[in-house]
TrEMBL record:
<protein>
    <recommendedName>
        <fullName>Restriction endonuclease type IV Mrr domain-containing protein</fullName>
    </recommendedName>
</protein>
Length: 504
């Protein structure tokens, strides 16, 4: 404990465990502001982590309900027993009212030698009642209890096995597929389910409402797509290109949808052979099922991809499955899919080449205007936080390799990443290759981004794709490339940009 701008109560402070309740009252009396630090301790198992989040949620929700504290912030630990802290500030509180809560939460989060066994049982009973009534109460901080559910589900999978789910198979069938009901939707008729990298939402929930409720409310747009599966590897194809997806997650998610929703007239019963998204095991029903037919019989859907390739949506008759675990395929992987498609006589959906109607006259732009266009492209890309865009001076006045800097948005299981973009306006008809891009590695070493992008008005040469793929793999770097085809399709959907930059 220490006194800076306000008194701090750290619930894993060893001094508090030896402090009499009257001393605690004296400590907090005559303070108008109090900083309470709720630890998430270092744990050995995911189940321990889960119950640490449950404890923290109970404490935070109690302070919000009883003392009107509606905001918190997190703070990393500088050693000790905690992984990090939830910090919440109380103002203008009654010390007498607060003291019993401090004692109770000390018991739950740490200990206090003056608390007897009957009191401990009473306090843990309060916490257990909170857990049992989660679907009936208002939650001020649903994101904290979501972390509890996530660790319960994944901890049970990794540490307890599928037998853990047998008792929940009727009341909570989604859990055996790795999903839980989002805390914000527990007391709502229409649910949204989360997993580590997917969402499932009832079709009664508009997609705009879904994304607004999950902090993805800036300019999200989706475009139709098609699914191509070759040798169990999935590729989502749209007019913007190709995205790799994990087919195990798709099958697992659609299986979950069909078990949860009542329209089962054409549904084939199944079991998962494990809890990792793989295909189906033999069961007592195996003689009645051709498991290879599951996909054809159970998976009628519409497919969409976000315009800026942040997620993929499988929309079935009952619900939508949103996948965030997607990747831009390497140039080599894309080429292998193209070769396979040619072999079987298939072709990509309309739009591999730009049509004359959307081609742009690049002679109208100079370097500075092209960089302004690049800024507009990034600004309207919902993958990036447009409040973080920085154009690095005039096009000829800066050090090479860093024309634009921006951070990506925070997504489920993905923290914001710093991106650096190079903008290349080529006046000739030649492609962009390694000789006119400079040393990408030097730029990365100098500025330390987690993502690197190239925006060019011409075709990008395969040698440059190969170099970028190599850097991506060796440095764990995300790559974002824009060539003339991609830019022209982007601007075709935004006539105001054509008017601004290409009006004759």
């Amino acid at each position: 404990m220490n006194r800076k701008k306000m008194l701090e109560i750290n619930f894993d402070d060893s001094e508090l465990t030896e402090m009499h309740p009257d001393e605690i009252l004296n400590l907090i009396t005559n303070n108008k502001e109090l900083l309470l630090r709720i630890p998430i301790p270092l744990c050995y198992t995911m189940m321990d982590v889960a119950y640490s989040y449950l404890d923290a949620s109970y404490v935070l929700e109690t302070f919000a309900k009883s003392f009107g504290a509606k905001n918190y912030y997190t703070e990393s630990s500088n050693g000790g027993r905690a992984s990090f802290y939830y910090n919440i500030i109380l103002r203008n509180f009654c010390s007498e009212k607060l003291r019993p809560y401090i004692i109770e939460f000390l018991c739950i989060l740490s200990d206090n030698e003056y608390i007897d066994e009957d009191e401990k049982l009473f306090y843990y009973g309060n916490r257990n009642e909170f857990e049992a009534t989660l679907g009936d109460i208002q939650l001020y901080f649903p994101e904290v209890i979501d972390l509890y559910f996530a660790n319960v589900i994944n901890g049970a999978n990794n540490e307890s096995g599928l037998e853990f789910f047998s008792e929940f198979s009727i009341s909570s069938p989604e859990q055996k597929y790795g999903y839980w009901i989002g805390a914000s939707y527990l007391n709502k008729k229409d649910k949204v389910l989360y997993s580590q990298s997917c969402w499932i939402a009832s079709n009664n929930i508009e997609l705009s409402e879904l994304f607004n409720g999950n902090s993805l409310n800036h300019g999200v747009s989706i475009i139709p797509a098609n699914l191509l599966v070759i040798n169990s590897q999935g590729m989502v194809i749209s007019e913007n290109g190709a995205i790799q997806i994990a087919m195990g997650e798709v099958i697992q998610g659609i299986a979950c949808i069909h078990e949860l929703y009542p329209n089962k007239d054409d549904y084939t019963y199944h079991h998962l052979d494990s809890f990792n998204g793989s295909f189906f095991s033999k069961s007592e029903h195996s003689d009645d099922i051709e498991l290879s037919n599951f996909w054809q019989e159970n998976a009628e859907f519409e497919l969409y991809v976000s315009e800026f390739e942040e997620f993929v949506i499988f929309k079935t008759k009952e619900a939508s499955l949103v996948l965030f675990n997607i990747n831009k395929p390497t140039h080599l992987k894309s080429q292998s899919f193209l070769n396979a498609m040619l072999t079987i006589g298939a072709s990509f959906e309309d739009g591999v080449l730009s049509s004359p109607e959307i081609q742009l006259n690049w002679d109208l732009l100079d370097d500075e205007l092209f960089e302004q266009l690049c800024c507009d492209i990034i600004y309207q890309n919902s993958k990036y936080d447009n409040t973080t865009i920085r154009k690095m001076g005039k096009s000829r006045s800066r050090d090479g390799g860093r024309d634009i800097e921006v951070y990506s948005k925070k997504l489920p299981n993905h923290e914001p990443k710093k991106f650096i973009f190079q903008c290349k306006l080529i006046k000739s008809k030649s492609s962009l290759n390694t000789s006119n891009i400079g040393s990408v590695s030097d730029v990365i070493d100098q500025f330390g981004p987690k993502g690197y992008g190239v925006i060019c008005n011409r075709v990008i040469d395969s040698t440059l794709y190969d170099r970028l793929d190599g850097i991506k793999n060796t440095r764990d770097l995300e790559i974002d490339t824009w060539d003339s085809v991609k830019i022209e399709r982007f601007i075709a959907r935004r006539p105001h940009l054509r008017e601004r930059y290409f009006k004759v």
